[in-house]
Amino acid sequence: MSLYMDVHQGMHGITEEQLSAAHQADLEIQAEEGVRFERAWADPASGTVYCLSEAPSAEAVQRIHERAGHPASEIHPVPLSV
Predict the structure, then answer these.
(1) What range defines the domain where residue 52 resides?
(2) How many domains would you assign to the chain?
(3) CA 76 to chain centre
(4) Among 8, 13, 31, 33, which is disulfide-ready with 60 (CB 3.0 to 4.6 Å)?
């Protein structure tokens, strides 16, 4: 399993409740692709949302996000962390 940071654009004005609901939608189906979403962050002013996950592939992450209704604009592997 690898770590991935994905980026969503165009979510201007997202609220804490909306971010939580989107994250929950991912959590409800994540096991179907072997993904484990760890955390999500948002900047309502820029409309950018970031999600950190552990997954077998970037494609698995994208499939969950697409099914939950918020596909990622970018997905980046995170091979190093401290």
Answers:
(1) 2-77
(2) 1
(3) 11
(4) 33
Share of the chain above pLDDT 70, in %: 100
Q: What is the mean pLDDT of residues 25-41?
A: 98
pTM of the predicted model as reported, rounded to 2 decimal places: 0.94
Cα gap 51→39, rounded to integer Å: 6
The CATH number of whichever domain residue 71 belongs to comes to: 3.30.70.3090
Q: Is residue 8 part of a domain?
A: yes
Q: How confident is the model at residue 28 (pLDDT cuts 50, 70, 90)?
A: very high
Kindly state whether residue 82 falls inside one of the protein's structural domains.
Answer: no
Strand ranges in 1-82 using DSSP code E only, listed in sequence order: 2-8, 36-43, 48-55, 74-77
With H, G, I as helix, E, B as strand and everything else as coil, classify residue 36. strand
The closest alpha carbon to 7, from 77, 78, 74, belongs to 74
